[in-house]
């Protein structure tokens, strides 16, 4: 059985994951409007991935005898500037999510809940990938300069 404190914190993270999903969907719509269909496709994949994170956390809470809740999700931005500026925002946001996950691990540790710590380590590792991927795209966009359509084509290949 998971403690109420930890359950509430993970429910908070479910909201954060869903907010991230909405952010990326909003970015996808924006990129498509700007004519970057490959990047828009990449963002829709990212949207799905963030929703998966929320579902994984909910499934874990239920497995541990807790309650999973869908809390209030704040509105997300709609304007993001150039593709480079947009992906810089993605990188910054993923660094922020990493901090949220780290804080959850600290709480699970304080609550002496080893199973939850173990569950959360998966997300800690995942955040390393998320940050590196976003940083890599920022780097690609900087190098591409006017040949931005090549980056758009590459991101359009995401499975
Ligand atoms: Mg996530």
Q: Secondary-structure map with pairings?
A:
Layout: H1 4-33, H2 37-63, H3 83-110, H4 114-144, H5 148-155
This protein binds magnesium ion.
Low-confidence stretches: none
Oligomer status: single chain
Give the CA-CA distance, first to last residue.
Answer: 37 Å
Main β-sheet: number of strands, strand sense, barrel status? none
Q: Report the portion of residues in β strands.
A: under 5%
Question: Compounds present?
Answer: magnesium ion
Rg from alpha-carbon coordinates: 17 Å
Would you count the extended β strands for me? 0
Structural class: mainly alpha
Q: Mean pLDDT across all residues, rounded?
A: 97
Order of helices and strands: HHHHH
Please report the number of helical segments.
5
What overall form do the CA principal axes indicate? Answer: elongated
Helicity range: over 70%
Structure, explained:
By secondary structure, the protein is mainly α. Helix content is 78%, strand content 0%. It is built from 5 helices and no strands. It starts with a helix and ends with a helix. 31% of the residues are buried. Magnesium ion binds next to helix 1 and helix 2.
């Amino acid at each position: 059985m998971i403690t109420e404190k930890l359950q509430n914190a993970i429910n908070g993270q479910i909201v954060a994951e869903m907010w991230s999903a909405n952010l990326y969907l909003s970015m996808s719509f924006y990129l498509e409007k700007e004519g970057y269909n490959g990047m828009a496709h990449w963002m829709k994949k990212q949207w799905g991935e963030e929703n998966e994170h929320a579902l994984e956390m909910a499934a874990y809470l239920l497995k541990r005898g807790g309650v999973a809740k869908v809390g209030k999700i704040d509105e997300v931005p709609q304007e993001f500037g150039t593709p480079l500026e947009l992906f810089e925002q993605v990188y910054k946001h993923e660094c922020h999510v990493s901090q949220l996950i780290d804080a959850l691990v600290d709480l699970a540790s304080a609550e002496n809940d080893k199973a939850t710590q173990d569950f959360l380590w998966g997300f800690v590792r995942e955040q390393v990938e998320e940050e590196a991927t976003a940083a890599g795209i920022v780097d690609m966009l900087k190098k591409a300069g006017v040949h931005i359509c090549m980056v758009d084509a590459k991101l359009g290949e995401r499975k």
